[in-house]
Amino acid sequence: MSRYGMALVGSGSAVPITSVSNQQLSERVDTNDEWIRTRTGIGARRICNPEEPLTALATKAAEAALEHAGWKAEDLDLILMATSSPDDLFGTAPRVQGALGARQAVAFDLTAACSGFLFALITAGQYLRSGAMRRALVIGADQLSRWVDWDDRTTCVLFGDAAAAVAVEACPAEEDGLLGFRMHSDGSRNGCLTLAQSETHHSVLSGVSAQRGGFEPLRMNGQEVYKFAVREVPAVLKELLESTGISADQLDWLLLHQANQRILDAVADRFQIPHERVLSNLSNYGNTSAATIPLMLDEAVKDGRVKSGDLIASSGFGAGLSWGGALLRWSGPA
Ligand code: UT7
Fold first, then answer.
1. Residue nearest to atom 13 of ligand 1 (CA)
2. Most buried residue, 18, 170, 212, 331, by most Cβ within 10 Å?
3. Which residues of the chain have pLDDT under 50?
4. CA distances from 274 to 240, 279, 302, 308 (A)
């Protein structure tokens, strides 16, 4: 067993100022507030303005998490940014590092769609537990409004933009806030949810053609992804509970990727977790991909629901297909 654990000690978030209601979307596509609310639980979503792209949003969230933890940017060893919609395909985390002035930190992106934040948190945990690093910021940030097809009612109503961050630090192993984790991928089902490179080629020299950079809009087989989520999320949480010897009634909170209220309810029912212990804010923000879990956590910490010492079962799931779970103990300030 490692000498160190990972303590979750601060959080922060930032959302764009522009909120778009279901009613507004019905002016563009054939949809309505009632369908979106009853099928998904979503009432509104935020959309990034040109003046505030992802880097700015992620930097704001990171600054808020640093302040909450009582850290300076120079204290950071690592900035890990989970995103599938970067400002720069070479990496958006270094832009955030530059904006923060976190000179000592190595900064890089991690892409695992809606599982990204959880995968990044678990990854950061390995550096802290091994003793290689002391302090890290894990950011979940996505601007999927860039990539949705605004004429496809089956997807454009679901997604929103946001950024959120959690500050984590090495602590004695007995105080580890990462009690257990599991991560899975199934690339054979990759086609269910894609944001794929487009297949256009152009001639660059005589006899030489190259692919032109650019992506197709986000495409999803909603029913398949729904079935996958309600099967795999309970399975991974069950695995986690069994491996850690923790029972569902010991959990203070269920904190799932915010994709659909019906998925949250189905998973809670499966473990007989009362709905008041299920964290949900998708009515305000929709599915913000890698940002949903830290955005929800930050809201619940700041409004006093999640308290120091609380035990949280979390699960992320989505494109890849990928999914995972973690049992977490919050130890930050209110
Ligand atoms: O973050 C990554 C993980 N993502 C997820 O977990 C998403 C999982 N999937 C879902 O949450 C749900 O499948 C959706 C919310 C995407 C769709 O809900 P559904 O209950 O599975 O609806 P459906 O796809 O079966 O469509 C039912 C009907 C269809 O019409 P017909 O064929 O029955 O006439 C759709 O064309 O609803 C129609 N429909 C809409 N109607 C009004 C689809 N989208 C809309 C819409 N407004 N926006």
1. 222
2. 170
3. none
4. 19, 11, 22, 21
